[in-house]
Amino acid sequence: MNDKELLNSLANDLRDAPARCVIYLEGKTDVDIFFALLGHTRPSGDLHQGVLIRGLQEGDGSGSIAVQRRVELGATFGASARILGFLDGDGAALNPLSGQFDAPFAGPLFSWKAYCIENLLPKAGWPPTWGTVPNWATEIRNYSPYVGLNRVHRNFAQILARLNIARFTNPIAGQALLREAEVSRELQQGKDEIMQRDVQQEFRNEVTSFKAALLQGLDHAHCLFNGKWLLSHLAVTRTRKSAEDCRSAWVAHAAAVGGLNEVKDWWTRIIGKAP
Question: Residue 145: is the preceding peptide bond cis (ω within 30°)?
Fold first, then answer.
């Protein structure tokens, strides 16, 4: 969508929100978890206290970028409306993420104090029908190789993006065409940067850093560990149920036990009333 289309979309969402407040989340599957962490099952129309909770989906744009742009454009409505957004932590450390969630930070663009919203489900408890509560430090440590590999991948993805080879490159109307010599020179520089990297040592360093974070506490580890694995692998392995069934059960449990205090406190502080 271009900015004009986005502004129309924001206006439509605000019309559906009696409180003139919309909260955007990166994914459509984030919405049921968000309500569960507030201590509620997902309501009809995704409305709570007049606030509309919108999870972005395919066609709305890339998750984090799409949320950010909506929040930026939301400022054009002035004091007549509030456009808020939540971003996943995506591997950032706990301290900077806390600064984008905890008081006195007032937004309008917030970050979860975790890799993604799924990381918050264990803090709300473990469904009792699933048996013994996992030793979270031990279980999460077992995923260290995946954390290390993915962080190495991200490092290389950033290099490829700088070189414009992370995805297809197309000519853009109104911009000068690329020149062969310039592209060749930049790729040579990129080649040198890649050749100098010790991938094995980078992997070891990332794993060591993750284990050190885990020793600091689970909150630190959850910022580096992809919480979606809790549903797609850990819960599936423990219960022998599908990932969708595991998600539904865990979300239902979180809502049944009253949600998660840190999210409920955020709602009270930002929205102005207890959830």
Answer: no
For the record, the structure tokens of 237 come out as 């392995």
Does an H or E element contain 273, and which? none
Q: pLDDT for 125-154, tens place per residue?
A: 999 999 999 999 999 999 999 999 999 888
Give the whole-angstrom CA distance, residue 213 versus residue 231.
22
Alpha helical stretches, state H, 169-260: 180-195, 199-216, 218-222, 228-229, 236-239, 243-256
pLDDT in tens, 25-42: 999 999 999 999 999 999
DSSP bridge partners of 85:
24, 109
140: CB partners within 8 A, 6+ apart: 214, 218, 221, 222, 225
Structure token digits, residue 194: 């890649």
Please report how the helices 199-216 and 144-162 are oriented relative to each other, as an axis angle in degrees rounded to 10: 130
Count other Cβ atoms within 10 Å, centred on residue 271: 18
User: In angstroms, how far apart are the furthest CA atoms of the chain?
Assistant: 64
CA distance 26 to 88: 7
- The Cα–Cα gap between 244 and 248 comes to 6
Q: Which pTM was predicted?
A: 0.87
Buried b (16+ CB within 10 A) or exposed e, 54-86: bbbeeebbebbebbbbbbebbeeeeeebbbbbb
Report the C-alpha gap between 16 and 10 in whole angstroms: 10
Which residues contact residue 27 at a Cβ distance below 8 angstroms, ignoring those fewer than 6 apart?
A: 55, 56, 57, 63
